[in-house]
Amino acid sequence: MLAEILNLRKLIVPIVVLGLAVIFGLNLLDWNLNKSFFNDMLRVDNFSVAFGGLAIFATLLVLIMSGDYYQKEQGYISDFTAILIFILVGGLMMLSFANLTMLFLGVETLSIALYIMAGSRRFDIRSNEAGFKYFLMGSFASAFLLFGMALIFGTSGSFNIYAIAEYTANAQGNISPLFYTGMVLVIFAMLFKVSAAPFHFWAPDVYEGAPALITAYMSTLVKVVGFAALYKLLTVVFFYTSVKTGLILNIVAIATLLVGNLMALAQDNFKRLLAYSGISHAGYLMLLMMASQEQPTGALLFYGLGYVLSTLAAFAVAIPVFEAAGSEKIDAFNGLGKKQPLLAASLSMAMLGLAGIPPFVGFLGKYYIFTESLHAGFFYTTLIAIISSIIGVYYYFKVIVAMYGKPGNDQKVTFSFTYALVLALTLALSLYLGIRPGAILNIF
Amino acid sequence: MTSDIVFFLLAAISVFTALMVVFSKSPIYSVMWLIACFFSIAGHYVMLNAQFLAIVHIIVYAGAIMVLMLFTVMLLNLNKESEPHKSILSKSIGIITGGMLFLVLLAAMRSTQLGPYSAPETTDVGFVQKVGMKLFTDYLLPFEMTSVLFIAAMIGSVVLAKKERNI
């Protein structure tokens, strides 16, 4: 914003990227800190540092791309950059909250900034629809979240998450039913944010309508942060009571897996396809939520990282292809394998990563998730998850088939340096973690 | 017990006005009922010793936001004819889901034994000074973060409303 006054728009993105890189480093320095700040409003522990690092990393990659993506809209770049940073701030609040008010503020900061970004193509009716739909549905979910928190506060007498956990531990068997109602309402609101079925209806429309870069941001950072916050709720706040939600989470997980994978089969729009793929990935992560009593933090982080890497790599290829083709259908990729084999190979790698084929990170992520949920004793749900991940392979291959098997026009895709940088970074990390998962998995 | 009578009176008014907001045919009437609803809720705040909150509630909601809403309603020129008609199916789905939530809440309320209400030791909890002290010491971070939230919203509204200019 300041830079705009000085007419230094070109410098904004590099400066912000540099700043984020510094923050990423500072964040890692807080490892093993385990301290609460501001009268127990924020708690910095290894959980928040790890997921915060992931969130900052995702923002970093998106921002690197944003310079080229918003080339035609130079006038807005400072505003958009600022809003992206606000989304990150909201996400970090959601990760390190030690007080439910902070969780609510984080969710709201993240969502309100996202409503704006989803609707930021003002002259595109689909973008308008996306922003408006997201706004209406999101404010409804926020109301649920707030109501649930009020009920929890009313019964436990505190907003502090550790005090609430203590209340549930001490009052075992004698917890007010209103507390459970509040708990379920809060969990539902979070499930909405991560677009788990049956709260997923907004996701495909919003993902399709929003600008592609924002879709990439929404489907990576927001989903991972949402799941991390839900996981923190389940493991800290509701640790003694979340057993009762087992059936609900189980149903939601199965529904999410089936809806995500089956609906994705019928899509011909790439962004919509990735939206449904995001829903199905939410389903796999739901398995971890069900197994939250076992504390599978490492698996959650690993899968989240793998998902972020693969999705961002896919978008780094897809955005320039869309711009060249002027369409966001899967057909836009036709013939890419002959024109630009390197690009096509990268996208194939990203797709294989999402589908969970070794040696990419997605495979091990899924493997750890299935192991954890089997450990926790959810045999049938895991079986459904495995079947649906086989279904998933089909629609990811649809893109690959389009690239290599179908003839396309000869139009060259201009692929700028920043996209290539993001692509190289994500794919290299994805491969590295696929081969040596221990670096992330055993971090806790 | 006068406070009981006042409470039930206020509660009845708020429920009635809230229902009228939904059932009124004309949007203008809805907005008017909403103002009445806000005032009765402010009454509840006063009864709970939260005078500051009550005043702010009236100023912000009944004052600023209502004026904004009235303007919006008038500018949009909503009337009965332009109201979209929902199909019976979506109506019944709404009724069923809403009714289920209502049922759950009702059941939870019924089986809850609320402890005896103990009045706070001091009656000045809701005054500006006390609220301010809390806000700037214990709840400093949420307070500051609210400003981040607002600045995000403000930038957003400017971005969405800004005139397209050629660069």
Description:
The complex is a heterodimer of chains A (444) and B (167). Chain A is built from 19 helices and two strands. By secondary structure, chain A is mainly alpha-helical. Chain A has one domain (2-441). In chain A, helix 4 (77-96) runs antiparallel to helix 5 (100-118) and helix 13 (297-325) packs antiparallel against helix 18. The radius of gyration of chain A is 21 Å and the shape is globular. Mean pLDDT of chain A is 82; it is low at 1-8. Chain B has helices at 2-23, 27-47, 51-76, 88-110, 128-136, 140-161. In chain B, helix 1 (2-23) runs antiparallel to helix 2 (27-47) and helix 2 packs antiparallel against helix 3 (51-76). The interface between A and B is medium-sized, with 37 and 30 residues.
Quick overview of this protein structure:
The complex is a heterodimer of chains A (about 450) and B (about 170). With about 450 residues, chain A is an all-alpha fold.
Could you give the topology of this structure?
The complex is a heterodimer of chains A (about 450) and B (about 170).
Chain A: H1 2-5, H2 9-29, E1 35-37, E2 42-44, H3 46-69, H4 77-96, H5 100-118, H6 125-156, H7 161-170, H8 177-193, H9 202-209, H10 212-237, H11 246-265, H12 270-290, H13 297-325, H14 336-339, H15 341-355, H16 361-375, H17 379-405, H18 417-435, H19 438-441
Chain B: H1 2-23, H2 27-47, H3 51-76, H4 88-110, H5 128-136, H6 140-161
The SSE order of chain A reads HHEEHHHHHHHHHHHHHHHHH
Number of helices of chain A: 19
Mean pLDDT of chain A: 82
Poorly predicted parts of chain B: none
Spatial strand sequence of the major β-sheet of chain A: 1-2
Number of strands of chain B: 0
Question: Into which percentage range does the β-strand content of chain A fall?
Answer: under 5%
Oligomeric state as shown: heterodimer
CATH homologous superfamily classification of the largest domain in chain B: NADH-ubiquinone/plastoquinone oxidoreductase chain 6, subunit NuoJ
Q: Count of DSSP helices of chain B? A: 6
Number of separate structural domains of chain A? 1
CATH topology of the largest domain in chain B: Four Helix Bundle (Hemerythrin (Met), subunit A)
When the domains of chain B are counted, the total is 2
Mean pLDDT of chain B: 81
Structural class computed from helices and strand pairing of chain A: mainly alpha
Proportion of residues in β-strands of chain B: under 5%
| Inertia-based shape of chain B | globular
CATH class of the largest domain in chain B: Mainly Alpha
The total of beta strands of chain A comes to 2
The helix content of chain A, as a percent range, equals over 70%
